[in-house]
TrEMBL record:
Protein's name in the database: 4a-hydroxytetrahydrobiopterin dehydratase
Stated family: Belongs to the pterin-4-alpha-carbinolamine dehydratase family.
EC number(s) per entry: 4.2.1.96
Keywords for this protein: Lyase
């Protein structure tokens, strides 16, 4: 069954001549700078990884309980952090974590933000630590508890949270 995959045009041709050249890949649509292709490859693993390497928000978290998951190195985390703008990479007593803070309009808007994030977390089976302090200060921390550090799941969750439309819940930035 052909699957539609999207990825930046620039990286398409670099790969088609590579390992994926063997697949019968058909360019079905060129959207602005992104190309949709369909491929009849059964295992799209290489292709999937290649296609979604650019955009974490369309990847899926994997169950954290598989034994072969190890926390990523600080170097690997530093390479991924640019893909999740707004998120900070922190090292808390040798545990790498992601965190991001927002000022919300009200305590209840903070809870609405938590609910929106919770819906994503439940869909992914991967969960953040939620903090709401001083009534309107929200901080979200993400790390993989099962391994005591960061895995790609954490970056996928952060990217999906970045994809939420939270503007209506946030206090306007004070004019500088
Ligand atoms: C089996 C399932 O993957 C685990 O229970 C999940 C649930 N959500 C999780 N969320 C986070 N952040 N870390 C985990 O280790 C974790 N484990």
């Amino acid at each position: 069954m052909a699957r539609i995959l999207q990825f930046p045009l620039t990286s398409l041709f670099r790969s088609l001549s590579g390992a994926h050249g063997r697949s019968s890949i058909q360019v079905t649509k060129i959207l602005h700078d992104r190309v949709e292709v369909s491929s009849n490859r059964k295992s799209l693993n290489g292709f999937r990884t290649f296609c979604t390497g650019e955009d974490l928000s369309i990847k899926k978290c994997v169950p954290c309980n598989s034994n072969d998951i190890r926390p990523m190195t600080e170097q690997a985390a530093n390479e991924l952090i640019p893909k999740v703008p707004g998120w900070n990479l922190v090292n808390e007593t040798d545990t790498l974590k992601l965190n991001r803070s927002w000022k919300v309009k009200s305590f209840t808007k903070g809870l609405e933000l938590f609910q929106a994030v919770a819906d994503v977390a439940e869909a992914e089976g991967h969960h953040p630590d939620l903090h709401l302090v001083g009534w309107n200060n929200v901080k979200i921390e993400i790390w993989t508890h099962a391994v005591g550090g960061l895995t790609e799941n954490d970056f996928i969750l952060a990217a999906k949270i970045n994809g939420l439309d939270l503007q209506r819940l946030l206090r306007r930035k004070a004019a500088t």
